[in-house]
Amino acid sequence: MRLSRTNSSVGISILALTTLFTAPVAVAQSPFASEVVSYAAGVGAAAGFTNAATALGSPERFSGEGLIPGAVTPFQPAFRPDEIVSLGVGGSLVVRFDHEVTDDARNPFGIDLLVFGNAFFTESGKGPGIVAGLASEGGTIAVSLDGVAWTNVVGLEADGLFPTMGYTDVSAHSTSAGAQLTDFLRPVNPAVTISTLVGTSYDQVLELYDGSGGGTGIDLGALGLRAIRFVRVTGPSVASMSPEIDAFADVAPLPPNPDLDGNGVVGATDLALLLSAWGTADPIADLDGNGVVASADLAFVLSEWTSGVAP
After folding, report:
1. Per-residue confidence (pLDDT) for residue 27, from 0 to 100
2. What was the pLDDT predicted at 26?
3. Beta strands in the chain (DSSP E)
4. What is the model's pLDDT at position 160?
């Protein structure tokens, strides 16, 4: 039986509507590791702290509920078994992101990946909240795009600098949560070292963190890598050392800044700089971060024009 033109049109319309309402809905990517690929507890892993799924999702901001409650600060880390996973000597944890974590020149300080442990600052006899040193238990980090070929991260520890900071408006040993959250997708300036921090007060630590939630920061470009999806942390070979891991995060890029010359206004000089970089991958002029300076970047500069009238 042949459909009439009218029936045929109706059939096509119904098909279109069916396709519209049954089309798969895009799932938002998580900025945190979303899957445990493997976990093996090593010798000396803390009893009860072997749930690897605790390393997925966001780091902890508040710990010790029902026991010794307190905001997570660089002086009092997360410590409950449903918040961190213990590796032990020779232990291993491999996690996967649901997207590629890329080497992005727009990221603060060039840092692309953060690893959160439960290290903490020890305190000076000069008073509470004065940094004396860092209590950490190491952990070797390796990264991979395919989970087969791995690149070791040299000189950085998984359970090390910078201890997690949950809020910007609590004291060093606060027993209640704050209202102002830190940013777990923003790294601390890597120019800050433990030597820089020793002797500083909690207020100075807050200033140096500058809104960051902490974490060990890794620059993929420095490793010669374009992108990764897998992170592996391996426990040390030293007896009685057992790193604890809380989370892994993909650093968020800074908002695009069309003021390319940094003079405080968006104007003709910025336009000239953008046009001179046209078709290149110049990270300063590539405002949308897609790898090439093109029309979308031009449109952004013109939309933010503040010096005179846009051409």
Report:
1. 61
2. 53
3. 35-40, 62-63, 70-71, 85-86, 92-102, 113-117, 120-123, 131-135, 140-144, 151-153, 216-218, 227-234, 244-250
4. 93
pLDDT at 11 (0 to 100): 47
Domain(s) of CATH 1.10.1330.10: residues in the chain: 255-311
Please state, in angstroms and as integers, the Cα–Cα distance from residue 91 to each residue in 120, 122, 234, 245, following that order: 21, 26, 6, 12
Give a three-class secondary structure readout of 178-246. Answer: CCCECECCCCCCCCCCHHHHCCCCHHHHHHHHCCECCCEEECCHHHCCCEEEEEEEECCCCCCCCCEEE
Angstrom CA distances, 55 to 49, 52, 66, 82, stand at 11, 6, 21, 9
Per the listing, tokens 């009238």 go with 309
Class of domain 255-311: mainly alpha
User: In this structure, what DSSP letter does residue 167 have?
Assistant: B
CA 150 to chain centre: 20
pLDDT at 310: 43
Spans in the chain with pLDDT lower than 50: 1-21, 23, 308-311
Residues 106, 282: contact at Cβ < 8 Å?
Answer: no
